[in-house]
Design a protein that fits this description.
7 strands, 6 helices, alpha/beta, globular, Rossmann fold, 7-stranded mixed β-sheet, 32% helix, 20% strand, 206 residues
């Protein structure tokens, strides 16, 4: 049983470290931890290794974000990943505040074109996805431009922490299973971080 972890993003130096490439950054973090080297193979940069004794493939599609699904068939065939329970997709999410992590075992694309491309290719929503909040654009800024910007200095510290915690979540998904990873990482927030738009959760009984 091989696990396939796909981080979404756009290839090339122009897009490196942009908000839209958080998925790429998390896959790179897992690869660094595990000593997995990525090599360009067909429609993706791919690395093979193991986590907790389980074979794992880490992939960064090179198709451009909106065509991410085109990488799936070749990856599935090459590495024998037929069961969608063995697939985890990691992506940015503009509808979540920066510093928010949300892991689900199924669901819609939520307007994310890269994820929609994967759903369309697989003809299924029944696979795990790890969403990482990047926040909404300031008033008047085009969302399509916003996702291609880099984090502001005060945001970058948080983004760096999110990348490492998301890598923890991806490893936990393999080591302990989806339920444990969902329970442990959903609701995580960086200590002391209050992004624009943050509101405290209501206290019970209030």
């Amino acid at each position: 049983m091989t696990r396939l972890i796909i981080g979404l993003g756009n290839p090339g130096p122009r897009y490196r470290h942009t908000r839209h490439n958080l998925g790429f950054s998390v896959v790179a973090a897992v690869a660094d931890r595990r000593g997995i080297r990525g090599v360009a193979r067909g429609p993706a940069v791919v690395g093979q290794g193991s986590i907790a004794g389980e074979p794992v493939v880490l992939a960064q599609p090179t198709t451009m974000m909106n065509l991410s699904g085109r990488a799936l068939p070749q990856l599935q065939r090459a590495y024998g990943v037929g069961d969608l329970a063995d697939l985890l997709v990691i992506l940015d999410d503009m509808d979540l505040l920066l510093g928010t992590i949300r892991l689900r075992d199924r669901g819609s694309a939520g307007g994310h074109r890269g994820l929609q491309s994967i759903i369309d290719t697989l003809r299924s929503r029944e696979f795990a996805r790890l969403r990482l909040g990047i926040g909404r654009p300031p008033p008047g800024e085009d969302p399509l431009d916003f996702v291609l910007t880099r984090f502001r200095p005060e945001e970058q510290r948080v983004a760096d922490e999110v990348i490492q915690v998301a890598a923890d979540a991806a490893e936990c998904w393999i080591e302990e299973g989806p339920a444990a990873a969902i329970s442990r990482f959903n609701g995580w927030r960086p200590e002391g971080w209050r992004p624009e738009g943050w509101r405290p959760e209501p206290q019970s009984g209030a």
